[in-house]
Amino acid sequence: MKAKKLAVAVLAALMATSMVGCGGGQKKEEAKKPAASAEVKGTITGSGSSALLPLVKDAAEKFKAKNKDVSITLNAGGSGTGLKQVSDGSVDMGNSDVPAETKLPKDKASKLKDHKICVMTVVPIINKDVQVKNLTKQQLTDIFTAKITNWKEVGGPDKPIILVTRPKTSGTRALFKTYAIGGAEEADNKSLETDNSGILVKSVASNSGAIGYVALPYLVNDKTVDRVSIDGVEPTLENTYSGKYAVWGFEHVYTAQEEKPAVKAFLDFITGAEYGKRIEELGYGVSSKMQTKEVH
User: How far is CA 79 from the centre of its chain?
Assistant: First the structure.
C-alpha cells in the first residue's frame, strides 16, 4: 500500500510539473507577440504645390482609412505659398516643386526639414484644334515669351496662340522656366492665369489655340488636351528616368525640424514600401529609378 501511495504521489507531482511547464510556455509565446500598433491621432495641415496635391490627397485618404482619429486638411496655392506658410507655422507641411531656398530667404529655408517624396514631370499641353505634336526648345521659348503668336509659325493652323499661364509663386512655373525655356521670363496672361492645375487643363481644353503646361499626373486619365514633345522627346516617365526628357523636378514636403508625431507618421506612410507602388500609378516618378545625374 505504501508503495502504491508513493507511486500516486509521484505521478501527481509529475502532472503538476507538466501543467506548469505548459502554462509557462504559453506565457512565453504570448510575450513574443508584438504589441498592436496604436492608431495615429491628431491634425495635419498642408498647402502649396498643386502638382503634388493629387498624391498627398490620395495618400491622406488611405492613411485616414487606417487612422480614423487623424484629421488632414490639404490645399494648393502654389509652392511659394506653401513654403511661406510652413515657415511661419500656419501649416504643418509646405508642399513644393522646388527647393525651399529658391522661394525663401536662406535663414528661413535652413530651419525647415526637406522630405523628397517623388519625381514630377512637367508637360506642355495644347488645345486639340492645334494638332502640333512637337516643338523645339527654341520654339517653345518663343511661344511663351510671346515672340511667336500664331500657330502657323511652327507648322500649325492659322490660329492665334493663347497662353494659359501660372503665377510667379508657382513651383511648376519655376521648373518650366528653368528646364523648358532656358530661364527666359514667361509672358503673363492675367485673364487665364491660374495655379490650379485642374482648372489650367480645362482652360487649355476649352480655348481654341491655347497652350499651357501641367504636371504629368493631371494627364493620366485626361483625353481633353494633347501633349507636346520637346525636341522630339515625349514627356513620359521612362524618358524622365533616363534623362532624355529634361523638364522635371523632385517633389518636396517641408516641415519643421521636429515634426508632430502625426505628420511624421503620415510622411513615413507616403515614403514607405506599401504606398510606394501607388506613386507611378498616379503619374509620378519614383526617385530611386532616376538614372540621370543631373541635379534638379
Answer: 12
C-alpha dihedral, 236 to 241 to 242 to 243, nearest 10°: 90
Q: How far apart are CA 108 and CA 89, in angstroms?
A: 11
What is the chain written as a DSSP string?
-HHHHHHHHHHHHHHHHHHHHHHHHHHHHHHHSPPPPPPP-EEEEEEE-TTTHHHHHHHHHHHHHH-TTEEEEEEEE-HHHHHHHHHTTSSSEEEESS-GGGTS-HHHHTTEEEEEEEEEEEEEEE-TTT---EE-HHHHHHHHTTS--BGGGGTS-S-B-EE----TT-HHHHHHHHHTSTTPPPPP-GGG--S-HHHHHHHHHHSTTEEEEEEGGGGTT--SSEE-EETTB---HHHHHHTSS--EEEEEEEEESS--HHHHHHHHHHTSHHHHHHHHHTTPBPGGG-------
Q: Which three cell numbers stand for residue 236?
A: 513620359
β-pair type (112-126, 248-256)? antiparallel
The pTM assigned to this predicted structure is 0.81
Q: Are 215 and 122 in contact (CB under 8 A)?
A: yes
Give per-10-residue mean pLDDT for the chain (296 aa): 43 42 40 53 96 96 96 95 97 96 96 96 98 98 98 98 95 95 95 94 98 96 97 97 96 97 96 91 94 76
Question: Residue 63 has which C-alpha cell?
Answer: 492613411
The whole-angstrom separation of Cα 266 and Cα 274 is 13
Q: What is the pLDDT of residues 264-294, one digit of tens each?
A: 999 999 999 889 889 999 999 999 899 986 7
